[in-house]
Structures are given as C-alpha cells and as structure tokens.
Amino acid sequence: MLGFLKEFKEFAMKGNAVDLAVGIVIGAAFGKIVSSLVDDIIMPPLGLLLGNTDFTQLFVNLSSVSYPTLEAAKAAGAPVLKYGLFINTIINFIIIAFAIFLVIKFMNRLSRKTNEDAQKLKEKADKIKETFKNPIKILKR
Q1: Can you tell me the distance from the alpha carbon of 73 to that of 115, in angstroms, rounded to the nearest whole number?
Q2: What is the pLDDT of residues 72-103, one digit of tens each?
Q3: How far apart are CA 79 and CA 59, in angstroms?
Q4: Which range has the top average pLDDT, 12-21, 27-36, 58-67, 112-121?
C-alpha cells in the first residue's frame, strides 16, 4: 500500500500533472469570464439590434399548450427546444476558440523566435570554432 501511495505522490507532483491542474482551473475561470462577456456584454446590444430580442427567452414549445415565457414552460414541465441558449453557447465557443487560437499563435511566434536566435548563436559559435581551428590565421591578423 505504501508503494502505491508513493507512486501516486510522484505522479501528482510531476510537472505535467501540476501544469494540467493549473490549466484546468484557469480554463474554468476563463470560461466564466467568457460566459459573462457573452451574456452580459455581447448579447444585450445584439438583441437590441434585432428588435429587443432576449436570446435566453428564445425557445420552441413542443407541447400543445402555449406558454408566454421559457420559465413558464419549464415550470409546467413542457418539452422545449432552447435555441436561444444554444446560440449563446455557440458564441461562447467561438470566443474561447478564438482566444485559444491567439494564444497558440503567440506561443508559435515565440518558439520561432527562440529557434531563430538559437540558430544565430550556433552560426556564431561555428565561426568562432572555425577561427580557432587555425591559430596561424589568428597570429597573422
């Protein structure tokens, strides 16, 4: 049993597991920020432009009884398609996907720059090595 606990501790304390945990926590917080951005900032003006439409109230009633609001239909237990909430979710996804795209693009740019810098340093080091291979050349200068 102690071996199992020791192995689990080693796994949990590895950089990858800790990095993953941090990423999940930050991702969850970022998701809440994006949801608030969509629900509280983007959708109200968009709804206003579309004739005072509240996307959270857009639904298709699948029952034969008519309901004035989504809440009334839900309270009655009526089957509904909540397509307005689905639209909000799609917009959330697009914003998150775009943000991830920007982060990856930035990381790729940094990686390219690092690789270019490493290549330049290697070229300089090769020149220095080549220069010191022939000490007579150095003395003639």
Answers
A1: 59
A2: 999 999 999 999 999 988 988 888 888 888 88
A3: 10
A4: 58-67
Residue 139 inside a domain? The answer is: no
Q: Domain holding 92: CATH number?
A: 1.10.1200
In terms of phi and psi (left: phi > 0; alpha: psi -120 to 50; beta: otherwise), the region of 117 is alpha
Q: Does residue 119 form part of some domain? A: no
Nearest CA to 89 out of 118, 50, 56 is that of 56
Which structural domain range is residue 74 located in? 2-100
108 within a domain of the structure (yes/no) = no
Run of H or E including 119: helix 83-133
d(CA 31, CA 37): 10
- Mean per-residue pLDDT of the chain: 83
Answer yes or no: are the C-beta atoms of 43 and 91 closer than 8 Å: yes
Query: Per DSSP, which regions of 76-130 are E strands?
Result: 80-81
**CA-wise closest residue to 46 among 95, 80, 91, 94:** 91
Query: For the chain, how many structural domains are there in total?
Result: 1
- Is 75 within the bounds of a domain? yes
